[in-house]
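Methods — Computational structure assignment.
A single polypeptide chain was analysed. Its primary sequence is given first, followed by the predicted tertiary structure written as structure tokens.
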Amino acid sequence: MYYPDELVEEVRMKNDIVDVVSGYVRLQKKGANHFGLCPFHNEKSPSFSVSGSKQMYYCFGCGAGGNVFTFIMNYENYSFAEAVKMLAERAGVDLPEMEYTEEVKKREGRRSRLLEVNKAAATYFYYQLRSPRGEVGYRYLAGRALSKETMQKFGLGFANGAGSDLVQYLRSKGYADDLIQDAGLAGFDERHGLHDKFWNRVMFPIQDINHRVIGFGGRVMGDAKPKYLNSQETMVFDKSRNLYGLNFARTSRQSNVILCEGYMDVIAMHQAGFTQAVASLGTAFTSGQASLLKRYAKEVLLAYDSDGAGVKAALRAIGILKETGLSGRVLRLDPYKDPDEFIKNMGADAFRERMEEAENSFFFELRILERDFDMTDPESKTSFHREIARKLCGFAEEVERDNYMQAVADRYHIGYGNLKKLVFSYAAQTGFASPAQRPKSGIARKKATPEENRKKSQRLLITWITEEPGIYPKVAKYVTPEDFTEELYRKVAERLFEGLSRREYNPAAIISMFTDEEEQREVAALFNTKLAELETKQEREKALHDIVYAVKKNSYEYYSARLGAEVSAINQVIAGKKALEELSKTHISLDE
């Protein structure tokens, strides 16, 4: 959804960033800014700064930064449009309705009605659990050591034993039979007519990342089959692209996600403080779910059951995580079957220790693979080593493959040279990998490139102008937006210079020009480059002169290299040469 710039700016101006961020982070005023612990990385000393004058935030620890929209996008994992909508509602700003074709209107209307009927059903189940008819379900959940607060947080409910109570309730609320059936809440046959799908079950509402109920899971009371029954897939419920508990886990602010097998595992872990736990929805873990997790974490800890089926599921999940670009580690839960049992018996601290000791997924695969070989038999042992070589060929990056070869050689007491030969021999036969090419001689030295130096001087100048808008007229005599050779920097400079020429100063509005979260982060960094702390006026004037000269010189060199390729370059070169000559004999004063 596209919103006009004027409307976006109205929403931003009506949501003071200090007020909004204070709802998420405890802030303390220090000087002109407010500081607190960064919500985007773990830290002990506050490096997270919120500026009321700039209407921006910036973390000097991890580099997270932006305006109020960026913060909501980062913290809530919203898109730009979703952040605008949320803040508009907060400020009481009316947003225009989206214009749909009749077909889309009909489809979206159906989606809305399905969400409505699911919400109504969840409410019905919730109150049934807390009524005399739901006593058996409540006793079951209490017996699983769940608190009232946890039951409430996850909206747990109960479907009683009657045949069509829910159907009658939903009909009384005005929902049509076809909608109730399409939502997966009821079935139909000639004998019983429309009847409840779930009965005599503890109910687990499944929510999307925006806390909307999209489906249900039900655990039967007694020995009936199936033990767990889940909603069918609908217009609003795709099992392969949703995860149970992700609506809470996505704001846990942890660097990892814990992937479990079942609803109760997730709930027990959240109750114990591990709010980053999620589970797949009655199906095997999918690539769609892995892609979803990649939005919220870099590492996945697998907390699957310790039985044979759990191990098989973990091995499958490891492969999917690798394909998605996520790193995975495996939690050891023995002597207990699952996370729920482990926490009940060992406690949260012991589980936290297991998290720290979680096994590298590659070595977990090797440990499981080793079970198929007799390590006392030389031939079988050699076959195992060949399998290791085959798996090592799966690392496309040479450095990573070499690191694993060294680690495997140490762990399994294989000579590194022998293992390396085995890997390259297998790679040569199959074409899976090629030997690492090492430099013949010399040591690689990291050196700042001319491009990096050029970008740094441009960042410093933008930050200085932002910190002290009064210097703009002095800088503008020599520097124009075209002198910022990075496209993003140039766009920022154009808007900044344009505003300052009208005596308007609004860096937060400039960030709103960009809807991409990474671009907003980079723009925020432009306004927060660390300037050197200079004590005297003379030192500051010299530093400003040097930065302006560097920007102009870099610009002159940049456009000189493009003479003949770009018609506009000649004008920039001529103007640049003239400005450099003037700057070389000019002093820039900071006096008004």
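Note: The radius of gyration is 30 Å.
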